Amino acid sequence: MSSSLHHTLWHGADYNPEQWLETPQVWEDDLRLMNAAHMSSATIGIFSWTMLEPREGEFDFSWMERVFETLAQNGQKIVLATPSGAKPHWMARQYPEIRRVVPERGRQAQQARHNHCPTSPVYRAKVAQINGELARRFGKHEALLAWHLSNEYSGECGCDLCFGAFRDWLRKRYDNDLDKLNRLYWSRFWSHSYSDWDEIDFIDKGVHALGLDWRRFMTHQTTDFMLHELAALRPHSKAPATTNMMGDFTGLDYAAMAPHLDFISWDAYPQWGKGGTGDDDIQTACWSAFHHDFFRALKRQPFWLMECSPGQTNWRDVSKLKAPGVHRLSAWQTVAHGGDAVMYFQWRQSRGSSEKFHAAVVSHEGSEKTRMFGEIAQLGAELEALGEVAGSQTEAPIALVYDFENLWAIANEQGPRNTNKSTQKTALDFYAPLWKGGYGVDVVDSTVDFSSYKLVVAPMLYMLKPQVAERLTEFVRAGGTLVTTYWSGLADEHDLCFLGGFPGPLREVLGLWVEETDTLHAHQTNRIQVGDSQLGLGGEFEARDYCDLVHPESARVLATYACDFYAGRAALTVNDFGAGQAYYVASRNESSFQSEFLTALVHKLELKPAIEADLPTGVVAQKRVRQGREWVWVLNFCGQTQSWTTREEGFEKFEKGEWHALQSGQQHTLPSSGVAILRRSK
Ligand code: GAL
User: What pTM does this model have?
Assistant: First the structure.
């Protein structure tokens, strides 16, 4: 990440003063309130196109110039967005081709946002022009902190331009060889062979490789559009650039986009308070942690939280208020996982239109007297005081593989189980015990270099992209520990099944092959009986959904099924391979299995948690490090006051703006939603 970004832990918000041009008092209040809330940045211009170019070719940057001047004088840095996320009406009317075509091939009406065609040369020209104008005026401004490219790129367009570009992309991918494409698409099936590239103009979900390629292409085309946006800025500005990605969104392969960005940012809208019990908030915290670890791992660098809501959203069926302390807790959780910024959607509630009831730092009431403003201001002061954390890193000895192309392939395949495939839930189930234990985890794409990890957990790795099996095998041979599961190693990157026994090229390292996979109805269960003295693991666990019938070759059996005609057969195995070990979890087991198994494994591997401490359920720790200094956050998500103790020496604790020595072995109290911030120099 560029060093200019490391001055502080940024505290900012999406700021739309152009909605208040006629009320100078609001502009004045905003400046005062930003300082009161310890805001160090503001993100402007995201959906401002018509205010910058009200009619074709007529530009007006005067209000934005004023924003730059006033914020700079007021002490805030600016994150400047390109406005491509919402196209003007005049443009949509004049150039219908810029409007996205939905997959059934209907041209969308001009409405809402996030709906442009990523291929349209007209739209690209318009975007390049407005971006160039913005960069020429503001690209070297001392207040400019970063570029925010568009907003939440997403979606797909099925217009002729996009299909033309898709065919060109396919020609390149398949060396202009249609026979090759036909072979790899297995297209004799149902007589889907193509005799001409132009026949490829509809995404037939039955041709699995075509569906996958379409998604890959949409990532390619969106990335290309993003780079086109960036290219228009670069002649005038070197400021670092990001785009705000989304949690739970798997429509674009973020791992493919990440290398093109200077730093990663994402928008998090966790559902705090959903069930009103601590347990639900622990799950929500786990979901947030998983995404933080995913977005940080995209570049293995600190990331920004570009958006979060200071309170209720307006797009869920039901939106709870953020209870006192929850915002602070969730903000420090972000920092603890490698976040260098906590920013809001939005600074001030709009008076009208779609998001008028979405929470903001400044509500319709308009002053600093609200509860949330008070909490945000307090957090802002704390972030300011702990600026030393900015730029520090996360040490992750564990990789959890969460590969979007694999998710697409599983979603697309029609197999023995076409419901409740639950890929994300499964990933979270394997992630949760590692997170609860306070271990550093990188949530990664399957193509990363595994050599720096001690443990790689790859649940449901159905698709093995080129070299992935080889690299996992090498990782184990060199002493690493691999855990994979049922529904792994079935297909290659073209979604062609491996011949010669699943899990295909992972067969040797796992020391087994899978003959059949039983899938269970919702009312059916099996049980697995575990007995492994090496791991100290025992007992019975419930299995649901997927049960592989495995033939161990060199693998040892650590658990067997208790029921059905395959009772007594292997349900958990380990294979000693080279200097490492590879585990195969053959069935989808209840969460307590993942918890006991992975906890036993990290102990066996002697991995170090963030802090050696007795932490009650729902209290978790995370660590960041830089040059002999470490910071640890102890975060209480369980909804009750808790006490905890550490066995480690030398920590100081941050309290009321100061650092105080922390006694090891002494009990500390953490209120509900409390956060203890510790540091130590080694
Ligand atoms: C985000 C979007 C923002 C705002 C927010 C509301 O997805 O980027 O512009 O709409 O949701 O929660």
Answer: 0.97
